């Protein structure tokens, strides 16, 4: 039996990150921290924009994972926050991409901001497919 078409609904995620937490992690752990959390594209943005830029990208990763619905087992580098045409864009790979597809999420839009001590990110996507049975994922 075919189910009636469900209208897309908006899903959101947001996160607030202390800039000093990122600054301290970079100072204390250097490349080990950067390589574990950020893609080369994001690290380049951090070389240009410093800790506020990295903190905004970390907040964006968290916002996207909240939008998807889980961060369990997801490598933070599988949520990449790049920049194209003057705007941040989300690129998903691996488990993050699988989970977003399973949730029926369309393209994810993200907005970043930082001021003073904090960086903020909001992620939004339309959910067009409401899957009832989650698929099993392999890492």
Automatic annotation (TrEMBL):
UniProt xrefs under Gene3D superfamilies: 4'-phosphopantetheinyl transferase domain
Cellular localisation: Cytoplasm
Keywords assigned by UniProt, alphabetized: Cytoplasm, Fatty acid biosynthesis, Fatty acid metabolism, Lipid biosynthesis, Lipid metabolism, Magnesium, Metal-binding, Transferase
GO biological process, one term: fatty acid biosynthetic process
Main location class: cytoplasm
Enzyme class: transferase
Domain 4'-phosphopantetheinyl transferase: from-to ranges: 13-122
Transmembrane segments: none
InterPro entries: 4-PPantetheinyl_Trfase_dom, 4-PPantetheinyl_Trfase_dom_sf, ACPS, Ppantetheine-prot_Trfase_dom
Residue sites binding Mg(2+) per the record: 15, 62
Cofactors (names): Mg(2+)
Catalysed reactions listed for this entry: apo-[ACP] + CoA = holo-[ACP] + adenosine 3',5'-bisphosphate + H(+)
GO molecular function annotation: holo-[acyl-carrier-protein] synthase activity; magnesium ion binding
E.C. numbers: 2.7.8.7
Pfam family, any one: ACPS
GO cellular component, as recorded: cytoplasm
The protein's role, per its UniProt record: Transfers the 4'-phosphopantetheine moiety from coenzyme A to a Ser of acyl-carrier-protein.
Family designation: Belongs to the P-Pant transferase superfamily. AcpS family.
Protein name as catalogued: Holo-[acyl-carrier-protein] synthase
Organism: Nocardioides anomalus
Gene name per UniProt: acpS
């Amino acid at each position: 039996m075919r189910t009636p078409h469900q209208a897309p609904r908006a899903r959101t995620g947001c996160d607030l990150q202390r800039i000093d937490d990122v600054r301290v992690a970079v100072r204390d752990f250097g490349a080990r921290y950067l390589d574990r959390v950020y893609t080369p594209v994001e690290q380049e943005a951090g070389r240009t924009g410093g800790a506020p830029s990295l903190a905004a990208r970390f907040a964006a990763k968290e916002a996207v994972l909240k939008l998807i619905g889980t961060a369990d087992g997801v490598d933070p580098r599988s949520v990449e926050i790049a920049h194209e045409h003057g705007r941040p864009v989300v690129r998903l790979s691996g488990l993050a991409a699988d989970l977003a597809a399973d949730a029926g999420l369309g393209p994810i839009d993200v907005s970043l901001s930082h001021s003073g001590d904090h960086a903020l990110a909001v992620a939004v996507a339309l959910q067009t497919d409401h899957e009832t049975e989650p698929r099993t994922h392999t890492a």
